[in-house]
Amino acid sequence: MHLATNTWYKAAMRIVTKISASGAVAALLISYAGSCGGDAPKETTGVQLFQANCAQCHMGDGAGSALAPPLHGKKSNWSRDTLVAYLKDPVGYAARDPRLKAQGGKYSLPMPTYKMLPQADLEKLADQVLAMP
Ligand code: HEC
Description:
The chain is an all-alpha fold. The chain folds into two domains: 1-40; 46-130, Cytochrome c-like domain (Cytochrome Bc1 Complex, Chain D, domain 2, Orthogonal Bundle). The chain is 61% helix and 0% strand. The chain has seven helices and no strands. The chain has helices spanning 2-36, 46-53, 55-58, 80-88, 90-95, 98-104, 119-130. It is elongated, with a radius of gyration of 29 Å. Heme C binds at residues 53-54, 56-58, 67-69, 71, 74, 77, 83, 87, 94, 100, 103-104, 107, 109, 111-112, 114, 125, 129.
């Protein structure tokens, strides 16, 4: 009798081991699917970055306001690289640019720096400004 119980116990343990092993595999698959599945955050677009960082002064469409000049009709002054440099240090950049220097005096607040943003976001913002009419 004791022998029979022991055999039953061993068989039961084999099943339990199999179930928990497949459970672990399933848990791994679920966490893998979660980490690279459909709920991963979407990349921020230039439009979204502009709305979040710039629209409060330049307006959503870049038409300008009492706080900032229009960005329309300005793209002949800029390239992607010069815009990224400007966004990192607008006041320093404007000090070396006579047109910006003269324009800056008309506004009560300086153009803020965006040097804390990742390079990729600065490039998207530059492209966004260059896309304005
Ligand atoms: C606090 C208000 C404010 C915010 C926010 C702001 N700006 Fe400005 N921006 C200004 C002011 C003021 C000037 C004029 C500075 C000058 O001419 O020296 C300016 C100038 C500029 C210029 C130069 C325009 C020209 O005449 O060529 C560009 C380009 C620009 N901003 C882009 C941006 C972008 C992109 C953002 C968001 C990442 C942004 N600005 C956020 C106030 C702001």
